[in-house]
Amino acid sequence: MTDAVRTLAARAGTDPHFLAFAVAEYAAAEGLDEAGVLARLAATPDGLASARLCRMPRPAPVGFNEDVDRIAAKFGLDRDALAAVAKHGQVVADLRRAVEDQPAESAAPVLAARDRPE
Amino acid sequence: MWPPDERLHDARERLVADPDTGGAFAELVLAPLIAELAERNRFAEDHHVSTAAEVAVMAVIKHPRRYDPNRLPLRAYLLMIARRKLKTAQAAEHRHHQSRIPWDAVELSLPARNEEVEGDDSPSLDDPELQAVIAGFTTAERAVFDCLLGGERRTTTFAAALGLADQPADQQEADVKRVKDRIKARLGRARRKP
């Protein structure tokens, strides 16, 4: 696999559509660099790059285990570690969506309270 | 070098059927896409070219069904997305430069005078008169102007921008100087308008 594809796979880490997002968020939360991620997932650089460009596993219980099993087997990743990474990524993605979906009015009282003089 | 269309077609079909094949698809198309995009946009920054290609490849991996094989080849579809992204990035950078590049970068000499009044001589390329002149540039003039804005000084670069790369050096020098002088004169006249 070329360096350009590995770069692209890492770039996908900003998009919750890709498993790369979960890897990036997990690495940030755990303070792992690239070598640390490879070690945690027992992956090769090419295997990790290919896994990053997979679609994020479907949420549990619908298809999560099936997707994680398939990706781990296909690209030679530690199955349990991958499951932990994917779950972490899904939680972060859900939280972000919840914040983004929050109506503007619900934030207003907080802002108003902060603006009130002490 | 692009793989044959049939191979690209098969890779995209696999992508539709199996969302785990994004890596294989990227491996197949990314390098030729970057190469062709760079070839067609010789003055684009390398990182803009590679980023635009990456975005295009990710778009197809993410939404393979949006591509309609009956309308155009996959290669052309990827190039279309990448070129759009590249133009957006270049436009954003151009706007950034317009507001930040000092007037000296276009090599226009300021009128001679002995007294400088602070703040009265900081011409902006946002000036409507200058904008009108810039909008009237030909493609070649615009390429030269962009080179000037970027601080480029090599005659060979300007010559390439004008499509004169195969001309003798003295001819390149004369033609480049003529176009640069014309641009500077037009910008200078616009700037002197009250």
Keywords:
heterodimer, A: 118 residues, 0% strand, B: 194 residues, mainly alpha, Rna Polymerase Sigma Factor, Chain: A, 2 domains, elongated
Characterise the protein shown here.
The complex is a heterodimer of chains A (118) and B (194). By secondary structure, chain A is mainly alpha-helical. In chain A, 71% of the residues lie in helices and 0% in strands. Chain A has one domain (3-115). Chain A is built from seven helices and no strands. In chain A, helix 1 crosses helix 4, helix 4 (45-52) runs antiparallel to helix 5 and helix 5 (64-75) packs across helix 6. Chain A is globular, with a radius of gyration of 17 Å. With 194 residues, chain B is mostly helical. Chain B has two domains: 5-94, Rna Polymerase Sigma Factor, Chain: A (Orthogonal Bundle); 122-192, no CATH class. Helix content of chain B is 65%, strand content 0%. Chain B has eight helices and no strands. In chain B, helix 1 packs across helix 2, helix 2 runs antiparallel to helix 3 (46-62) and helix 7 (155-161) packs across helix 8. The radius of gyration of chain B is 22 Å and the shape is elongated.
